[in-house]
Amino acid sequence: TQLLEQSPQFLSIQEGENLTVYCNSSSVFSSLQWYRQEPGEGPVLLVTVVTGGEVKKLKRLTFQFGDARKDSSLHITAAQPGDTGLYLCAGEGSNTGKLIFGQGTTLQVKP
Amino acid sequence: EAQVTQNPRYLITVTGKKLTVTCSQNMNHEYMSWYRQDPGLGLRQIYYSMNVEVTDKGDVPEGYKVSRKEKRNFPLILESPSPNQTSLYFCASSRLLGQGYGYTFGSGTRLTVV
User: Which of A34, A13, A14 is nearest to A22 (CA)?
Assistant: First the structure.
């Protein structure tokens, strides 16, 4: 069974601080996806990384896919209260029909 | 607007009364899937479909049925709901599988079985 371990589960920081969320597995994925979910709503795709070692930037968010395509990280620079939410990583297996989710990281950014 | 539409958003029902949660997407996506989200357990896949008339079990299929008679629709059927199926359900679709296209999720259906 493929598993994705996401850490930390909870993070409470002050506005302006930097943070990193990690997503690790012993399995290889064809892609690693990051989502953000607001309370009572469905997850919304932030980014997909598909190549080992790939780095993608989305404004203050930087996503990296590990060289072996087993792990990924999300780094937020100068966090703002608007970044508050649940962040989910998800690994996609090649032609398996499965998108495996990590447990999620609840981020709270205080003004 | 490209979207996945689920109905209803909220549903309270009694044990054993059959129900269907509908899911429709307007993006001509091949792949559709159902998830349930529970506190402490995260998002778990119930069933998925790679194309019309092709469905397969996810990680937690017991007590659920699905069908894919048309490309755009993927209803989730609970033949005899039980209280342990109380959960937040999401339908999702993707253009192609294993190609890193990302998934579009519906807004969710909060189901309570009493």
Answer: A34
